[in-house]
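Lab notebook, bench 4. Still working through the backlog of constructs that have no structural model yet. Next entry is a single chain of 164 residues. Request: give me the structure tokens for it.
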Amino acid sequence: MKFLERPKVYKYRYGLVATCVALIVLFWDQILKVITDGFDITIIEGFFWFSSTHNTGAAYGIFSGQTVMLIVVSCVMILVLLVYNFFKAKKTILYSVSFGLILGGAIGNLIDRIFLGYVRDFIKFSFFSFNFNIADACLTVGVILFIVYLIFFDDLFKSKKNKR
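Model written out:
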């Protein structure tokens, strides 16, 4: 019966989830970078504030001034991620959300590096010695979720005992 069949869009649901997550991350990352650039805004006195900084390196300022190399590495990693996603057979919502977070974060920082030559960081907590941005946070959460996915859900990392 034709009306009981799943709609064609159903087979693209994981791609749609990943795309929506990536676009939301990218949108909010870029909007907040524009709003906070050049400002120091206290949110919670002595604990949390927006403090604009420009980072020419990667995390914690490593590879500072190596913008071209960081652009190349970012492009290669995004390409590897897209190829992996294309050939990945078993996808879940967890996989799609982690993929979208990583992709959106990587593209958000890549846009800054290409057009500005640095990444705009603005989130500051009193207990961290560094600033970060939405893209950095999403990349971190996305990688953690992706590791959880690999350990608990991906067939490659599951124990052989479970397959008997």
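Notes after review: The helical segments are 13-36, 67-87, 93-116, 134-152. The beta strands are 40-44, 48-55, 119-125. Flag for follow-up if needed.
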